[in-house]
């Protein structure tokens, strides 16, 4: 079991990661603004499922394998960048259609959130390069990852719920017109493409 100081420092690092704008935050916010609170929570659960997959990778040692392979990290980087750009283009095309598109199903929103976080370069760096620094090699790794993972998920859920509630409040007050919804959708689409291009350009640095 990690020491209390380790848990506290890890919790602070987790908060800074999850609260800062990135693909996951943008996806949750955009879905909430466009389809309401239910869609926001569906996207949030998808995001958290992707983070659980990364925690499982850290517990089984897969993260260590990834950190030792430049080729695998490059595949992850370009795959994540391509997916973000795809989401941006898809979102833009939906907005520009003459007819109002039907709301996306919650299952699809969840799946997109899962993939978004699974290929999120920022999250990859955190679990591949940063989380191992909080592990004690002399103690069982899986137990430590479970403890740190519980801290991570608790903080991530709290932060994401705050984003969903804030976005739903903004949507209820300011997003009632079709023009406002179109502008917010264009902003989200453009930000997705920008994040994808930035991820492809900067790369994932090895620990």
Sheet having the most strands? none
Portion of residues within helices: over 70%
Structurally, how many domains make up the residues?
Answer: 1
Give the CA-CA distance, first to last residue. Answer: 24 Å
Q: Low-confidence spans: pLDDT under 50, at least 5 residues?
A: none
What structural category arises from helix and sheet content?
Answer: mainly alpha
SS elements, strand count: 0
Total DSSP helices? 9
Question: Could you tell me the radius of gyration in angstroms?
Answer: 18 Å
What is the global morphology?
globular
Q: For the residues shown, what is the average pLDDT?
A: 79
Describe, in plain words, how this protein is organized in 3D.
By secondary structure, the chain is mostly helical. The protein has helices spanning about 5-20, 25-35, 35-60, 60-65, 70-95, 105-120, 120-130, 140-175, 180-200. The chain is globular, with a radius of gyration of 18 Å. The two termini are about 25 Å apart.
């Amino acid at each position: 079991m990690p020491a209390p100081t380790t848990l506290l420092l890890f919790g602070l690092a987790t908060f800074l990661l999850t609260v800062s704008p990135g693909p996951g935050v943008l996806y949750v916010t955009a879905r909430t603004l466009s389809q309401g609170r239910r869609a926001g929570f569906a996207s949030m659960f998808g995001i958290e499922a992707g983070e659980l997959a990364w925690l499982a990778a850290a517990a089984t040692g897969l993260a260590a394998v990834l950190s030792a392979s430049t080729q695998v990290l490059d595949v992850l980087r370009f795959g994540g960048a391509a997916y973000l750009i795809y989401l941006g283009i898809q979102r833009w095309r939906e907005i520009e259609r003459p007819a109002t598109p039907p709301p996306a199903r919650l299952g699809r929103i969840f799946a997109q959130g899962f993939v978004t976080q699974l290929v999120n370069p920022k999250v990859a760096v955190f679990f591949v390069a940063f989380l191992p620094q909080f592990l004690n090699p002399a103690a069982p790794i899986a137990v430590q990852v479970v403890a740190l993972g519980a801290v991570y998920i608790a903080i991530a859920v709290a932060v994401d719920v705050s984003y969903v509630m804030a976005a739903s409040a903004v949507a209820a007050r300011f997003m009632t017109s079709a023009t406002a919804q179109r502008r917010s959708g264009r902003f989200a689409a453009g930000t997705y493409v920008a994040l994808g291009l930035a991820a492809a350009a900067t790369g994932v640095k090895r620990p």
